[in-house]
Design a protein that fits this description.
The chain is an alpha/beta fold and about 160 residues long. The chain is built from six helices and seven strands; from the N terminus they run H-E-H-E-H-E-E-H-E-E-H-E-H. The strands form three sheets. A three-stranded parallel beta sheet has the order 3-5-7. Helix 2 links the parallel strand 1 and strand 2. The relative contact order is 0.18.
């Protein structure tokens, strides 16, 4: 994220959260119902939905929060933001390789974006599942690379409006 900031690349943080009363939350999958029983709840405004250190949210970053669904793109308004910014390629990072990352990649491709996944910048559980997801699924629809390769392609710091 720091490298993207230095290069002037627009960063969007997509946060899944819930209201304390659960209004608007999806309940049509076992995953959603199981999340209700976890000791940590992703409640709006709580520490559980803050971007975790060492990642910092810069002033120019966009933070998009969703109360429903599995995807950081579908039904969130992110597509309109990306198009307004002139974006053609998404570099997808974060968690989880189990659900949100593949959803983001599939949605990006379905919406006409090129998707890039730095394999060392995503995580899921168990760890060997992440490697299998990358190799057998994401590699079919996205460019799989490393953080170092992405940072090398972003080039030197830019001035002005993020790309």
């Amino acid at each position: 994220v720091d490298g993207a900031h230095r290069a002037g690349v627009q960063v969007i943080h997509a946060i899944a959260e819930r209201r304390p009363d659960g209004r608007g939350a999806s309940r049509n999958a076992r995953l959603f119902r199981a999340a209700e029983r976890l000791p940590v709840h992703q409640l709006s405004g709580s520490t559980a939905v803050r971007v975790a250190p060492p990642i910092e949210v810069a002033e120019e970053d966009l933070v998009v929060r969703r109360l429903h669904g599995l995807s950081p793109l579908h039904g969130t308004g992110v597509d309109a933001l990306l198009r307004n910014l002139g974006c053609h390629t998404l570099i997808v990072t974060g968690v989880s390789a189990n659900v949100a990352i593949p959803n983001a990649v599939f949605d990006a491709v379905n919406l006409g974006y090129a998707a890039v996944v730095p394999a060392d910048a995503i995580a899921g559980v168990p760890a060997d599942y992440t490697a299998a997801m990358i190799r057998h699924t994401l590699a079919l629809v996205a460019t799989v690379t490393t953080t170092g390769e992405v940072l090398g392609r972003l080039g030197p710091p830019r001035r002005g409006r993020p790309q």
